[in-house]
Amino acid sequence: MPELPEVETTVRAINKFSQSTLKSTKIHNRNLRWKVVENFELLTKNQSINKISRRAKYIIFHLDKINIILHLGMSGSLRISKNNDNFFLKHDHAEFIFEEEKIVYNDPRRFGSIHLADKLDEHRLIKNLGPEPLSKDFNPKNLHKITAKSKINIKSLLMNQKNVVGIGNIYASESLYLAQINPNRIASDLSIEECKKITQSAKKILNAAIKVGGTTLKDFYSADGSPGYFKFELNAYGREGLECKKCKTLITKVVINTRATFFCSSCQS
DNA sequence: CGAAAAACCTGGCAGC
DNA sequence: TGCTGCCAGGTTTTTC
Asked: What is the C-alpha to C-alpha distance for residues A206 and A186, in angstroms, rounded to an integer?
């Protein structure tokens, strides 16, 4: 479910817990994408959170002695709840309990996961990640270095977190629409000018999505319960058969790498 | 080696 | 009303 803008929105919503004490953690279901380690509760008890941050689609709690890594998978979300709200929702798998409130981890499909890391940068899920798309490391020159030697289609390349992080199925379609690049283009055929259009477009799209709290298609809500409004600014994703907002050609849907992909066959070449 | 396909899950919805 | 099949904001593992 959540791509970079949704994760970033979630991190901002829970940022008020940085500089506070994580009193305890409760894991109700350890069988997530990977098994939550048995001593997770013990290793995270009564520690100050020094910072809450995002890396790629991961949410990081920087504790005194250790780091907690959360991934929301396809269907995960966090929500802030009062400690004395003793109701559970289906698929509430973990609770991070503070003085008055708690952060509840909910994930119906359990594609998400919860980890501990001593040294964040050395964690297996973190160490091979590509550059942040909103950083200066995601630029035409660096992207072109990668595209030049790959025969994969550009959409799949953008969704591969080794190349650039945070871009998932929605924002890959949207970025390429704005860049006017056909998602099926073979990466090695792209010029550096086209890579420039892609990096600029992706940054623009992601920033615009963050600004309105991400995209809520059906069930994404930020930790404070608010939906994201970028759905109303989508130009390609989910618009199969509707007119391209630029040229009125009907938007096409194809399947690339088993993922629905939307584009304008006239604007994008 | 790179690229494609399978795997991990649950829920909602269309169609019969 | 079921029941079936398909689809869904992801990423790793397996296979070719």
From this structure: 23
CA atoms within 13 A on the CB side of A233: 19
Is A5 designated active site?
Answer: no
Give strand ranges (E) for chain A: 21-22, 24-27, 47-55, 58-63, 67-71, 77-82, 92-97, 101-106, 113-117, 252-256, 259-263
Q: Which residues touch strand B (CB under 7 A)?
A: A 31, 33, 75, 90-91, 108-111, 150-153, 156, 257-258
Q: Annotated catalytic, A122?
A: no
pLDDT in tens, A1-53: 699 999 999 999 999 999 999 999 999 999 999 999 999 999 999 999 999 99
Q: What is the CA radius of gyration of chain A?
A: 19
User: Can you read off the two tokens belonging to residue A40?
Assistant: 């997770």
CA of A151 to C1' of B3 (A): 9
Q: Which nucleotide is nearest to A171 (CA to C1')?
A: C9
Antiparallel, parallel or unpaired: β A47-55 and A21-22: antiparallel
Q: Enumerate the nucleotides of strand B whose atoms come under 7 Å of any protein CB.
A: 2-11
Any bridge partners for residue A250, and if so which? Answer: A243
Locate A248 and state its tokens: 């009125």
Scored b (16 or more CB within 10 A) or e, A236-256 reads bbebeeeebeeeeeebbbeeb
Q: Which two tokens stand for residue A69?
A: 């890594």
Q: pLDDT digits over A144-196, tens only?
A: 999 999 999 999 999 999 999 999 999 999 999 999 999 999 999 999 999 99
